[in-house]
Amino acid sequence: MQRPFGKRNDRSMTYNIAILGASGYTGAELTRLILGHPDMTLVALTGERKAGRAMAEVYPFLRGFDLPGLCRIEDVDFSGVDLAFCALPHATSQSVIKGLPRDLKVVDLSADFRLRDPEAYAKWYGKPHDAPELQAEAVYGLTEFYRDQIRTARLVAGTGCNAATGQYAIRPLLAAGVIDPDEIIINLITGVSGAGRSLKENLLHAEMSEGANAYAIGSTHRHLGEFDQEFSAIAGRPVSVQFTPHLAPMNRGILATVYVHGHAQAIYEALEQAYRDEPFIQMLPFGASPSTHDVRGSNYVHVGVAPDRRAGRASVFVALDNLCKGSSGQALQNANLMLGVKETTGLLGAALFP
User: Fold this and answer.
1) HSE-CB of 324 using CA atoms within 13 angstroms
2) pLDDT digits (tens, 9 = 90+) for 94-112
3) Distance between CA atoms of residues 30 and 22, nearest Å
4) How many Å apart are CA 123 and CA 126, to the nearest integer?
5) 3-state DSSP assignment of residue 23
């Protein structure tokens, strides 16, 4: 049964929101976004290692805002919560969500429910899934392509930020049949915040600045599981892309360059048709390429197409902010749909520049 506060009869009522894992980067980004949301109120913020501390102590940029203190998950009264964002580490979310009330709407930002096949999950994450019944229930959270399912979902699985970026380039092209499914190369550059807030030696300033490197090369990156799942479903046969991510010394942002076989004009037209009415996806003029600067801190995606000097080949470029549209902004966009709120609410802010 829906709780009374989940049914808004006037503008004075808001949905009560919990963020589990609010002390991480995606949790902090969710907090920032929801503070500007007219239909949501933050009633619980958890942070296991920082329980008992104020959010402003953990993130000084949140000083001056009236926020709940950080607490442990077991201390949250979920009877007063309409929707919970789960911004917990991979493999932690599944056990936590399994223990939440069954009538609670949940948007999970981890990788735990992105893959529908339990065997695929075990392959890419190295262990059996702890909640396979929820794995079958979860709706994949790429909003523009799963909008109708998300509206009626109880559990939505946010995509990987790299996986979302690649899919914005490729999904409409596979659906329109304008590229060769067996000739897709995705080169991607990502900022260091995608690795989370935990201390890692290779992400220290002296180790990371003034350089860039490929990582998870070959067939080891876990987002390949999402590419395999989604692209194969569209094509109706197995599709395996070549994917190489690169870590760059920037805080936020992803820029993907995707090499495909097909006619550039047809590719541009297929993407323009697919995204014509999408509020957060902007097609650049033909031949132009995007910059991560232009989407930083926003929920927008910029897409460009350019022909190659060789006939029948083209490059597709996609830029987005990994913490916003790649994770927390996407999560809020999905939560709006799940709660019956206008999809763009709280997400129309312009990018931060410079």
Assistant:
1) 25
2) 999 999 999 999 999 999 9
3) 8
4) 6
5) coil
Domain spans of the chain, in order of start: 4-159+326-339, 162-322
Structure token pair of residue 108? 């999970």
pLDDT tens string 196-242: 666 676 777 767 788 888 887 877 888 899 999 999 999 999 999 99
User: CA–CA distance from 7 to each of 11, 13, 155, 185, 271 (Å)?
Assistant: 11, 8, 19, 46, 37
pTM of the model: 0.93
Confirm or reject CATH 3.90.1150.10 for domain 162-322, answering yes or no: no
Task: Assess whether 161 carries a catalytic annotation.
Answer: yes
Sign for the CA dihedral angle at 38, 282, 251, 25 comes to: positive
Catalytic residue among 71, 86, 161, 324: 161
CATH 3.40.50.720 applies to domain 4-159+326-339: yes
